């Protein structure tokens, strides 16, 4: 199910969400071989960072809560990964983060020169006060970071937004005005907390964490719906998408591509092929196409 996205041909419209499977070429290639049109790397940061203590991820049945803590070797310490990835036969979306506009710019400029197909700005992580959603909840700071990064990179820029913003559509518009080529929505919701009542303490070592999986899908659908109304750049819709019907729903809200993260844990690595086939089957049964149903939920009935 070939799809063109910002001038690149992808073999399916399914994106691997950032952070789910790391940055190793072999694993990114495997998801691509299993029907993922665009694998996204785990966010790359300005300096070596260990991330939070265990436990960092807990399965809640209807989704997960995580506070991994943006672990990264730092952009200067990934030569081996870039070497391997330079010989790849598949597209990649490189996610990056920073603690200031200057840090975002430094990481972006360096990473852009390594030749990813897209750069995704993670201005929406719930698990770091300095590096996190502090940018993505404010239209001005979102605009500033996108505008500054856009000047130094040579590949399309995707802004990854948080549902914690009071008005995500205004953040998306600020990113579009600053030169973003696409919006990716949503990052994990919350943050939330889970308390173990026997030990009377939060279960995650970091105490709070981002929510993902089926429990956040209605938030993701609402966010994509609001963003679609506000911008004309394409949207990667994600947040709790596990099946072809979920994908159809978020496409009707306005998504061009559909991201999958937590569902990799629930349905295995073949989830990309499965969701692609489920989308095809639904479209065939309804005698329609992706293009015809995109944004369909916006039409007055
Ligand atoms: C982390 C980063 C994210 O952007 C997110 O949504 C969840 C977790 C992290 O590394 O902690």
Integer tally of domains: 1
Count of strand segments: 16
Query: Which strand order spans the largest sheet, edge to edge or round the barrel?
Result: 4-3-16-15-10-9-8-7
Kindly state the percentage of residues in helix.
25-40%
User: Which whole number gives the mean pLDDT?
Assistant: 97
Radius of gyration: 18 Å
Secondary-structure content class? alpha/beta
Shape: globular
Q: What does it look like?
A:
The chain has 301 residues and is an alpha/beta fold. The protein has a single domain, classed as TIM Barrel. It is built from ten helices and 16 strands. Helix 4 links the parallel strand 8 and strand 9. Helix 3 packs parallel to helix 4 and helix 4 runs parallel beside helix 5. The longest helix has 15 residues. The chain is globular and about 50 Å long. The model has no long low-confidence stretch (mean pLDDT 97). The site of 3,4-dihydroxybenzoic acid has 13 residues, from loops.
Helices, strands, pairings?
Layout: E1 3-5, E2 8-10, E3 14-16, H1 25-33, E4 38-39, E5 57-59, E6 64-66, H2 79-86, E7 93-96, H3 101-113, E8 118-122, H4 139-150, E9 157-160, H5 168-177, E10 182-185, E11 189-193, E12 195-196, E13 201-202, E14 208-212, H6 217-230, E15 235-237, H7 244-253, E16 257-260, H8 263-267, H9 271-285, H10 290-293
Parallel strand pairs: 3-4, 3-16, 7-8, 8-9, 9-10, 10-15, 15-16
Antiparallel strand pairs: 1-2, 5-6, 6-14, 11-14, 12-13
Helix pairs in contact: 3-4, 4-5, 5-6, 6-7, 7-9
């Amino acid at each position: 199910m070939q799809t063109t996205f910002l001038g690149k041909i992808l073999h399916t419209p399914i994106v691997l969400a950032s952070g789910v499977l790391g940055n190793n070429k072999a694993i990114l290639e495997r998801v691509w071989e299993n029907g993922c049109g665009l694998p996204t790397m785990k966010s790359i940061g300005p300096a070596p960072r260990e991330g939070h203590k265990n436990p960092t991820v807990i399965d809640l049945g209807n989704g997960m809560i995580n506070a991994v803590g943006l672990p990264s070797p730092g952009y200067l310490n990934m030569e081996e990964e870039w070497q391997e990835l330079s010989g790849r036969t598949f597209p990649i979306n490189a996610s990056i983060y920073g603690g200031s506009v200057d840090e975002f710019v430094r990481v972006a400029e360096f990473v852009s020169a390594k030749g990813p197909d897209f750069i995704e700005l993670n201005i929406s992580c719930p698990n770091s006060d300095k590096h996190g959603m502090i940018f993505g909840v404010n239209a001005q700071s979102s605009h500033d970071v996108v505008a500054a990064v856009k000047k130094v990179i040579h590949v399309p820029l995707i802004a990854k937004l948080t549902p914690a913003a009071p008005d995500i559509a205004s953040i998306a518009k600020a990113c579009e005005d600053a030169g973003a080529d696409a919006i990716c929505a949503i990052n994990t919701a919350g943050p939330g907390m889970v308390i173990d009542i026997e030990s009377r303490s939060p279960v995650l070592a970091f105490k709070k964490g981002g929510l993902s999986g089926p429990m956040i899908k209605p938030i993701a659908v609402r966010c994509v719906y609001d963003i679609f109304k506000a911008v004309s750049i394409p949207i990667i819709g994600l947040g709790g998408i596990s099946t072809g019907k979920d994908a159809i729903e978020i496409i009707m809200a306005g998504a061009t591509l559909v991201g999958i993260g937590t569902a990799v844990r629930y349905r295995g690595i073949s989830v990309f092929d499965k969701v692609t086939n489920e989308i095809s089957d639904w479209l065939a049964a309804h005698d329609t196409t992706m293009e015809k149903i995109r944004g369909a939920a916006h039409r007055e009935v």
